[in-house]
Amino acid sequence: MTTNPYEPHPIRQGFAAGITMFAAVILLLGSILSILQGISAVADDQVFLAVPEYSYQMNLTTWGWVHIVLGIIGVLVAFGLMVAASWARVFAIAVAALSIIAAFLSLPYAPWWSVVTIILDLVVVWAISTWRPYADPPAPQQPTAPGW
């Protein structure tokens, strides 16, 4: 019996589903932390240091608002992922991609956190893009009676 290589493998799909729920939680927590980082930047807190000679300089207040907006959208999308909404998969990949860009731009301000954010966002993109939540279940096999 040959298997179709395009059919989802149950073990891989189960693993991807678990990783997707993990990704939803990571997206939720990362989005909440992004909101808090944004609030800290907008409030002119002294948590972030200004780097004088960086290629991608931007206003700290603008950077904070970008993080707040991305964080709010990320929280909504994470809840959508938790209930397996199909729209949430598309938006989660987009939010994770934007988060990767924002983390890259914030490398001089928070280098370790930026690298961790990029890695976690890549895990989110992988998990969401490999999981097929509405895959057709395998067809039930007909029982065979001996001697028939």
How would you summarize what this structure contains?
Keywords: Membrane, Transmembrane, Transmembrane helix. Helix content is 65%, strand content 0%.
List the main descriptive attributes of the protein structure presented here.
elongated; single chain; mainly alpha; 148 residues; 4 helices; 65% helix
The overall average pLDDT, rounded, is: 77
Return Rg in Å: 21 Å
Relative helix content: 55-70%
Report low-confidence residues grouped into runs of 5 or more.
none
Taking the sheet with the most strands, its summary is: none
Task: Give me the secondary-structure category.
Answer: mainly alpha
Strand tally is 0
Q: Shape, please? A: elongated
H/E series: HHHH
**Could you tell me how far the N terminus lies from the C terminus, measured between alpha carbons in angstroms?**
21 Å
Strand content: under 5%
| Tally of separate helices | 4
Description:
Keywords: Membrane, Transmembrane, Transmembrane helix. It comes from Nocardia transvalensis. The chain is mostly helical. It has a domain of 103 residues. 65% of the residues lie in helices and 0% in strands. It is built from 4 helices and no strands. The radius of gyration is 21 Å and the shape is elongated. The two termini are 21 Å apart. The mean pLDDT is 77.
